[in-house]
Structure to design on (411 residues):
């Protein structure tokens, strides 16, 4: 099999039939017919379930597993995940509406994100979800709304920790940040929550996203529990919630290795035991996005044209950065590396040539694969981009050049 995809954890769940990539027993060419078009994203329930089961088997049983909807807000997928996990995290009124359409109890839904507008806070207040406060100003606006609506908000404080998660793909805490309340400001905010007699639940401490370094994640765990212990002393009521955020990474590029979940889980067992001893009623939440859905998704595009420019083969496809910005390299701000990519109908063929897989947009940034070794492909063939279940379609500039939207299937 194509060495760029053979090692992927999802290949233990997907299968290959007659050389063709198959999800849940359905070959990709048939999925294209069901979708009624290319390009499309397909998300495999079995891979999601496999990932949830692995987490349940490895993490301490007390851990509450939440899904962060922003990773992939496809409604059917959210419904499926809601049945598999213990809660949902949302970051906007739109996502809140999606979460409230599931069977998840409002007490197991939290809303985070800077700049929550009054209408979003009001909706959160009315529905009884936990509001993760991001600033002292937001607390005061919530106080006014609570007063007006005659309701007591359930709140947690999102903390901008005084440590950073090193080697993280994206840092969400440490230093000056728009996210969360600085550790130093937390005592004053906690005091104010006490004055307001809000239902105080606890803390969210989220350090960073897309981390594949198990050691760094363990160091972050240490920091999170140490900080939680410190902050709990200042709380206006017994703390009942520690939300550790998300951030577990998945392998995208040639040298990436999956993280060591066993070691991560083993370390977490110790922290959870100690924490539950001091706070018997605390609920410890791990709120994952990418790790739950990233590897369950593929993006499938069709070759429209095959051309050779000065010796370089280009496969021009009907999909690209307007559906899958991350796979194209996020607007060229970083050194571009290829997501795992394959010819969907020739998974077991050896590579015949190095090709550039590009999209239809009028920008040189619209690239899905640069000089990737693939079997010979011709117009009409399907190309598949793996690891595409998180931060794909909903995180892409779909209006750019006004091509049709990608379809989405949950299989
Ligand atoms: C994005 C986000 C997550 C999920 O992050 P992943 O890296 O996808 O696991 C969790 N919590 C909050 C508050 C977020 O903003």
């Amino acid at each position: 099999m194509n060495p760029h995809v053979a090692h992927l954890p999802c290949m233990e769940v997907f299968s290959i039939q007659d050389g063709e990539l198959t999800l849940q027993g359905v070959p990709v060419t048939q999925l294209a017919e069901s979708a009624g078009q290319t390009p499309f994203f397909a998300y495999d329930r079995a891979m999601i379930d496999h990932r949830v089961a692995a987490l349940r088997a490895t993490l301490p049983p007390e851990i509450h597993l939440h899904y962060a909807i922003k990773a992939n807000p496809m409604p059917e997928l959210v419904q499926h995940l809601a049945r598999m996990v213990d809660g949902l995290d949302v970051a906007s009124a739109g996502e809140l509406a999606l979460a409230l359409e599931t069977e998840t109890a409002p007490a197991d839904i939290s809303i985070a994100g800077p700049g929550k507008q009054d209408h979003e806070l009001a909706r959160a207040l009315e529905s009884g979800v936990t509001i993760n406060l991001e600033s002292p100003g937001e607390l005061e606006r919530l106080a006014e709304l609570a007063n007006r609506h005659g309701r007591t908000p359930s709140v947690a404080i999102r903390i901008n920790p005084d440590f950073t998660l090193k080697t993280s793909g994206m840092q969400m805490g440490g230093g000056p940040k728009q996210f969360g309340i600085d550790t130093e400001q937390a005592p004053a905010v906690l005091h104010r929550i006490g004055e307001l007699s809000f239902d105080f639940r606890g803390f969210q401490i989220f350090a960073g996203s897309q981390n594949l370094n198990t050691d760094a994640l363990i160091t972050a765990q240490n920091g999170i529990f140490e900080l939680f212990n410190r902050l709990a002393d200042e709380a206006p009521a017994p703390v009942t919630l520690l939300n550790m955020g998300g951030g577990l990474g998945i392998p995208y590029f040639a040298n990436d290795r999956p993280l060591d979940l066993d070691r991560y889980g083993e370390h977490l067992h110790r922290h959870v035991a100690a924490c539950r001893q001091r706070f018997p009623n605390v609920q410890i939440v791990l709120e994952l996005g990418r790790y739950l859905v990233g590897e369950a998704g593929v993006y499938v595009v069709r070759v429209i044209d095959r051309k050779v420019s000065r010796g370089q083969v280009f496969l021009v496809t009907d999909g690209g950065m307007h559906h899958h910005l991350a796979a194209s390299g996020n607007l060229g701000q970083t050194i571009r590396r290829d997501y795992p990519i394959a010819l969907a109908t020739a998974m077991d063929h050896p590579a015949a040539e190095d090709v550039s897989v590009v999209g239809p947009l009028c920008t040189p940034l619209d690239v899905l694969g640069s000089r990737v070794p693939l079997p010979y492909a011709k117009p009409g063939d399907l190309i598949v981009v793996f690891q595409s279940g998180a931060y794909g379609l909903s995180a892409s500039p779909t209006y750019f050049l006004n091509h049709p939207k990608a379809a989405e299937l949950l299989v």
The chain has a mean pLDDT of 95. The first strand starts at residue 15 and ends at 17. The first helix runs from residue 3 to 6. The CA atoms of residues 398 and 405 lie 7 Å apart.
